[in-house]
Amino acid sequence: MKHTLLYIIGLLFGCVSLVAQTTGPRFGVPFDFPLYLSGNFGELRSNHFHGGLDFKTQGVVGKPLLAIADGYISKVTVTPGGYGNALYITHDNGYTSVHGHLDRFLPEIARLVHEKQYAEQSFVVTLEFAPEEFPVRQGDVVAYAGNSGYSFGPHLHMEIRTTDTNEPIDPLPFYKDKIVDNIAPRATRIMVYGDEYKGKVSLNKPIKGATEINGKIIVNCQLSIVNCLEAWGRISTAISANDYMNGTTNNYGVRYVRLYVDDQLVSSSDVDRFSFDENRLINSWTDYAEQRRSGRWYMRSAIAENNDLRMLHADTDRGWVTINEERDYHFRYELEDLYGNRSNYRFVVRGKRMDIPQHLPDYYYLMDASRPNRFYTQGFELWIPKGELFDDVELAYDVIPSAADQAPHYQLTHSRIPLRKAAEITIPVSPRQGTDPKKLYVARVDGNGRAYCGGTYKYGRITANITELGTYTVCADTVAPKITPIGSTSWRKQGRIVLRIADGQTGIRDYRGTIDGRWVLFQYSSKNARLTCDLKAEGIGPGHHHVEIKVTDMRGNVRVVSYEL
Q1: What are phi and psi of 348, to 5 degrees?
Q2: Which of 225, 251, 360, 373 is least enclosed, having the fewest CB within 10 Å?
Q3: Is the dihedral of CA 105, 110, 113, 117 positive or negative?
Q4: Using an 8 Å Cβ cutoff, are 248 and 38 in contact?
Q5: Rounded distance between C-alpha atoms, residue 402 and residue 209, angstroms
Q6: Are residues 196 and 322 in the same domain?
Q7: How far is CA 385 from CA 93, 97, 388, 423, 532, in A?
């Protein structure tokens, strides 16, 4: 009864919120053609939630973008990745809209951007404007949609944020009457797992489509799983699901996920808003290790002790379920979208008494999530500030020898465990590495690969910030970036220079292009590592010209190439 009442109250508050959005501020459409989405608000992404709606632009760039409400253009930004060309409009109604991946700005704004790029000798710039400089009315053309930044097809990324807090909210309630959706969300897999040393799950018989991985049982939702799962102690579940809409083949994030056990609400999620500080909490709500292993997202019903993500709600045991009777426990997932389309997935977990391995932690290695933690041994040091761990973690520290000319690997945990923000790691540097200390860096060991984590060398040790626990080592980068001309024989005919710049270890820190000794704007796209210079746009006329490109990586290695044009 208590949980039912809480559920009803939650629905009422949700209705009040929805009514406030639809009867309060109103927004117009960003385009003058039918609206379809390629992405929705809150979709699960690497280390963050998707902060807006992705509107399709009929497969082309250059569609005029319309102001969705009165206000003024308050900011524009240009970056090689992320939003690419982005425009911010502060509206009179208390909200700010953000428009990313634009093809181009209005001519007057484009001129100011170009001037600032030359003034700062940088492709990456930010311009802010006063209310009286670029006022707009709803329906005015304010820019042109495109495919810039980290975008892999023409579309508009549009966010609506509260101006005072800069928090993104779901824009879809403002466009429900413009976008058709009568398709319910669908789940593909359900995961059941025990709380380490407090619960256990098992399959009572082999079933095709059900697998057991690291103590977790993953079952295809198409199967009948009424009598195959057994458990004892403290367990939880997770679900992999997507939403769908009419007229597209895309899949989307699910707005509401609710878990019931014996018809009692255990946990729920409502992806309606978030703050940017909450983005990395996605790594605790979802099964981080499984996502890294299989690429599939699972939304967990159990909420970690240090996960205060506001879109998550649970009972007094934070979404864990205690199986302590030898009977059938009836689980039900309810998925719902903003239009009220629902689907339900039911399964049974049979309570069966079984031995749960007892464990006494080694307190020398135990990292307590409620306090700061420092681990130190033989020159190696790990510092985890208070609040950075989602749950208690017992280190599996080990030093793994490598080849004679390479640094050993320092294992902290067997699997990758995410942190809220960051911890600090310090690794002793072996004298046999014998290279310039400025070239050394900390790297996360990921199979046969290495992920750059930066680092500062001092007194025989190198220190870096890390965002997850795993295995780390020290590497050296002494190789300069590569610069490769693309179609150089047609540069003169096409009127533009195109090059590819890449660095195989630590990545590109910066680049600089000059023509006849003068800095010239080369636009950079991180998604394809292309540098492009439009000769006519940059005032390079007919004649003989000397082109020089300088590229520097994150460890200060420099490559300089010259071309005669």
Answers
A1: -115, 135
A2: 360
A3: positive
A4: yes
A5: 39
A6: yes
A7: 40, 35, 6, 7, 43
The verdict on 427 and 399 lying in the same domain is yes
Q: Count Cβ atoms below 10 Å from residue 19 Cβ, excluding itself.
A: 11
Strand ranges across the sheet with 461-469: 373-377, 380-384, 417-428, 461-469, 456-458
351, 384, 401 - which closes a domain: 351
Please count the structural domains in the chain. 4
Task: Let me know how long the chain is.
Answer: 565
Q: Are residues 390 and 466 in the same domain?
A: yes
Domain that holds residue 548: 482-564
Cβ atoms within 10 Å, residue 23: 8
Distant-in-sequence, close-in-space partners of 204: CB < 8 Å, separation ≥ 6? 227, 228, 229, 230, 350, 352
pLDDT tens across the length of the chain (565 residues) = 445 444 444 444 454 444 444 457 899 999 999 999 999 999 999 999 999 999 999 999 999 999 999 999 999 999 999 999 999 999 999 999 999 999 999 999 999 999 999 999 999 999 999 999 999 999 999 999 999 999 999 999 999 999 999 999 999 999 999 999 999 999 999 999 999 889 999 988 777 778 888 889 998 887 655 568 999 999 999 999 999 999 999 999 999 999 999 999 999 999 999 999 999 999 999 999 999 989 999 999 999 999 999 999 998 899 999 999 999 999 999 999 999 999 999 999 999 999 988 888 887 899 999 999 999 999 999 999 999 999 999 999 999 988 766 789 999 999 999 999 999 999 999 766 667 899 999 999 988 889 999 999 999 999 999 999 999 999 999 999 999 999 999 999 999 999 999 999 999 999 999 999 999 999 999 999 999 999 999 999 999 999 999 999 999 999 999 999 8
Q: Is 277 strand, coil or helix?
A: helix
